[in-house]
Amino acid sequence: MLKHLAALAAAASLSALASLPALAWPDRQITITVVTGAGGSPDTVGRLLAAKLSERLGKPVVVENNTAGAGIAGTLAVARSQPDGHNIVILTGGTPSQQAMRPKQPYDLTKDFALVTTLCAYPMVVAVPPNSPIKDFKDLLAKAKANPGKLSYSMNAIGSLHHLLGEWINIEAGVDMQGIPYRGSSQAFLDVTSGRVDLMVDTGTFAFGQVKQGQLRALAQSAPGRYDLAPDVPAVAETLPGINMMSWLGFAMAKDTPRPVVDRLNKEIREILAMEDVKAKLAEMGNIPMPSTPEEMHQRISSELAQWKKIIAAKGIKAE
Amino acid sequence: MIRIRNPQDFAAGLFFILVGAGALYALSDLRMGTALRMGPAYVPTLIAWAIIGVGAMVLIGALAIPGPSLESWAWRPLLFVCGATAFFGVVVGKIGLILAGFGVVVIACLAVPGLSWPKILVFAAAISSAAAALFSGLLGLPMRLWPW
Amino acid sequence: MDVFTQLALGFSVALTPQNLLYCLIGSLLGTLIGVLPGVGPVATIAMLLPITYNLSPAGALIMLSGIYYGAQYGGSTTAILVNLPGETSSVVTCLDGHPMAKDGRAGPALAIAAMGSFFAGCVATIVIAIVSTPLVSVAMAFGPAEYFSLMALGLILTVVLARGSPLKAVGMILAGLLLSLVGTDIHSGAERLTFGLPVLTGGVDFVPLAMGLFGLSEVVSNLEKGTAAGGEPLTKNIRGLFPSAHDLRQSAPAILRGTGIGTVLGVLPGASSMVASFASYALEKKLAKDPSRFGKGAIEGVAGPESANNAGAQTSFIPLLALGIPSNSVMALMIGAMMIQGLQPGPMLMSKQPDLFWGVIASMWIGNAMLLVINLPLIGIWVRLLNIPYWLLFPGILLLCSIGVYSMNNEASEVLLAAVAGVLGYLFIKLKCEPAPLLLGFVLGGMMEENLRRAMLISRGDPRIFVTSPLSAALLAVAAILLVATILPAIRQKREKLVED
């Protein structure tokens, strides 16, 4: 049944075949590996782009989820795949932090991949329940200073972007808020809204939706300046200059993938990300498009790696 | 004189002790922490000791209370059934669903003595193509069908 | 607007021919993937998401939820027929469902599972429509301490439902707990018990473990008994397709109790639908006049947990609809599907889009009715499967298992894990150690440890948090009472045996 529905999409793609240039790529199915679970933002964005790419490239583009080994297995498999441009892995803003936490990880993002482009991004958000006594971000820092070690924030696992943002704020503001690790946002949200935990550090994709529903109040977000999809939420950097982090998604392939293939894919993605319907879908999910050159992506990953290593060292966070 | 009166429980006790000891060994270089600030090794170490304790109790019980003796193992079905599954995992990424599925059925059939080869081969071909039609055709799972 | 007007609005949306069709497609597809072990609703819904871009929001949600509860119905089929639990909640169904099948009573087992699920689905749908807001406060009442105590109760229930020696059951639970701690610890980032294997960084997966422990070892054990060699089927004397009046009388109270337990526990995010089916099973066993029938094909042992499981699956929509938070990975996908449609799940959905909200709820009832109509006639076909010679059946089972496990992650090592778990499962059969307590410990262990440490962080190292919360204290008290009530008689028995010796 799925096949038939997919066939509709394939039929639509035939029209695109005529415009293919001389490059002999792709010559078979392209697989996009998503190393987080189905339904997460990498998965949803991956499937959106896969549909568009297969229309434009005239070959099937499928998404494969491989969550084995906390994503390391799937990422490693693409790094070791034939460098012919038919295996893509979606890296995320969490991938560099994972590497910063795990010196023994079997691949190096800056060396073992042909980076293609970043795709889209969203900031992290610091939020409280609507009835919280904390008025705004400055008030949060004041209360945290007055009660060292007393305020708690919900986050994902140790070393996640949630945690790194919390600790970065702790460092720059000279405060000591306690991170409470959760798996995913649901239980964290319930503990924050019922007052067991004081504030929530979560992804923009989750938090902005809850803000719209009136269930959370955003104190600040982590983009370098105001964020297009939530312009009235102040940036953390307005109070603590220097702090900025975006969670992003990006395409990478095996190291020796020919440059023309990388460039072609980069160009296709750029055009897809400029399409109005794609932009609208991304915005529904709280993302803004963020295409880049392979070099810019490399630059982003290296500087993030350096930044995370600094925070991890300063706070003595380490995977034992 | 110490006599094993319940060999089945004796083996089970040994198994639990081995599992606990293996876990303790694997946890040895992780931080324990304290009950109030637990490190990564705290809870698993407690569990490992508990399982060793349970194992010891089962073992002692096996010395005191008589029970069933160990049953013999059916090595042939065990080898071919689990072997067929393992075979599938190892080769499916390389040779595709249809050939790997064919292999699974052939290996599985070897678990049963006395099946004739023509029967096995026809059966294997039928089942693996049906599986391909179901998973790849109907459900559209992104799986390679052939080695090429 | 009162509930009846709202439901009428809902039915007017759900009963349009188009939405009925989506509901039917969803239920059918759900049943199919539910029957196939390993291929779960998560993968299917993820694959279908892009297609739903082009459907109406109500149509998309109706179809996707159909897949979800359809898979719950289908999952019990494989558990009963061939002892393959494709998802956590089917483990309990295996315990008595498969013995029933071997005894020639697969028909009544499948029918009672479908009827129990239908009843539970109907009740849960009404609950969602009428009292979802009060139930949200149940979810809010559960903090880390309460979760820990609930899980502790769950573990004690496992000892209660052990068939053989409680001591060995405790050992198996502990082994399951250990296994659940394999992987990265979220509280420290440390890798534990991975023995340096990268594939274990994220922990051990449930599906390969369950398939090996239950499915593969069952196949080996059947072959060992020589079923296959003589061209014999798994069961020779199939008796009746439908439950007798006696069966129905035995099952009805179990279905009622299971529905109640499942409805409440389904609201909690996490593995609660499985805790619900275990709780229902343990309750039925405790209440039964003759608990020794359990594990050998007691029909209440199928009816109760199946109802609990389906009620829980249904009410797990409540956090999604009322708060906009997912209570499991399927609900996370539903949120993705809603956002793509430009819908923000949460408390405002009901007031802003009442037609969609009530339409989806009404479709749940329709979908459950469809599933009953689809599943009852199928029983005749399923049961006939047990009639074919076993040598024709088991290679197919193995292939289904292998493909199912592989399809989750396209990862060879997980199929290997299933094979290893198969050998272990066979070892357990030989040592008379039950795999079910191990699996429950496995499912609960990680959550238990995380919530224990989380509670201690929140209370700043004060362990009294577990007893100062009334809910947590009550759960722990029940657990303690149950434990004493189970262990004491067992010890007495042992002592008597020793004295006799």
Overview in brief:
The complex is a heterotrimer of chains A (320), B (148) and C (501). Chain B is 68% helix and 0% strand.
What would you note in describing this structure?
The complex is a heterotrimer of chains A (320), B (148) and C (501). Chain A is of the alpha/beta class and 320 residues long. Chain A has 2 domains: 2-13 and 28-121 and 246-313, D-Maltodextrin-Binding Protein, domain 2 (3-Layer(aba) Sandwich); 123-245, Periplasmic binding protein-like II (D-Maltodextrin-Binding Protein, domain 2, 3-Layer(aba) Sandwich), CATH 3.40.190. Chain A is built from 12 helices and 10 strands. In chain A, helix 6 links the parallel strand 5 (152-155) and strand 6 (178-181). In chain A, helix 1 crosses helix 2 (41-57), helix 4 packs across helix 12 and helix 6 (161-173) packs across helix 12. The model of chain A is unreliable at 8-21 (pLDDT under 50). By secondary structure, chain B is mainly alpha-helical. Chain B folds into 2 domains: 7-64; 75-138, no CATH class. In chain B, helix 1 runs antiparallel to helix 2 (42-64). Chain B is flat, with a radius of gyration of 24 Å. The mean pLDDT of chain B is 91. Chain C is mostly helical. Chain C has one domain. Chain C is 75% helix and 1% strand. In chain C, strands 1-2 form a two-stranded antiparallel ribbon. The longest helix of chain C has 36 residues, at 106-141. Chain C is globular. At the A-B interface, helix 1 and strand 2 of A face loops of B.
